[in-house]
Amino acid sequence: MTRKKTIYRRDDERAVDELRPVTFKRDFAPSAKGSVLIEMGRTHVICGVTVEESVPRWKRAQKVSGGWVTAEYSMLPYASNERTRRESTSGKVGGRTQEIQRLIGRSLRAVIDMDLLGPRTLWVDCDVLQADGGTRTAAITGGFAAVRLAVDRLMKEGLLENDPIKEGLAAVSVGVVRGEPLLDLCYTEDLAAEVDMNIVMTSTGKFVEVQGTAEESPFSQASLTRMLTLGKKGILELLEKQESLRS
């Protein structure tokens, strides 16, 4: 007797290749040059960009031309069910936070021409209001949307002559849960995942970063290919939603 394959059912009834409901709210922080509240399901992240008309000391010391883009990430104390202690009270930034900040920063720098940006720094602050999985990928996606708005304003104000943004950028999580590759994992799926992966991709289909880890057994090349296909599908949908912010 042939057994039928069990179809994995997600708690929120999404298809395996379906994103959580995604919304962008632009100009959420009026004082920022560009800002976005990105909501991916129950994960909500505020991304704001401020402009500093100078570059880091190391760039000046090394006489490196062009500007700079850097990011800071934080999870607010009430972002999850249990209060998270503010890192500022401990006097140091934790390892996880440093890793995420660096990921956001280098992802954004991959699609920005520093020479065209000129001798200025874009500070991208990503603050997690509510966490339900995928906060770092939401921060990258929302962070790029905020940078896009900030650059548009700089050009409108005559502070930038040419657009330094080379192409679009977004990120999403994928993983394997109970043997099933899934797109855009929520927290409970992330906890149960046999494989957890974050994908950062440009609008021309080039990968900036692929972070994948087997939590239990190693995964196959076929499984990797399936996850990359899911991630690409999700990112293309996110890029389309980002672009609608400019209209």
Walk me through the structure.
The structure is a single chain. The protein starts with 21 loop residues before the first strand and ends with a helix. Strand 2 and strand 3 form a beta hairpin. With 247 residues, it is of the alpha+beta class. The chain is globular and about 55 Å long. It has one domain (22-244): Ribosomal Protein S5, domain 2. 32% of the residues lie in helices and 28% in strands.
Overall pLDDT:
92
State the strand order across the main sheet: 1-2-3-5-4
What's the CATH first level?
A: Alpha Beta
List low-confidence stretches: 1-6
Helix content: 25-40%
Question: Ends: how far apart?
Answer: 57 Å
**CATH homologous superfamily label:** GHMP Kinase, N-terminal domain
Radius of gyration: 19 Å
Strand content: 25-35%
User: What structural category do the secondary elements indicate?
Assistant: alpha+beta
Total helical elements: 7
The global form is globular
CATH architecture: 2-Layer Sandwich
Find the CATH topology: Ribosomal Protein S5, domain 2
Taken in chain order, the helices and strands follow as: EEEHEHHHEHEEHEEH
Query: How would you characterize the largest beta sheet?
Result: 5 strands, mixed
The strand count comes to 9
Q: Could you say how many structural domains there are in total?
A: 1
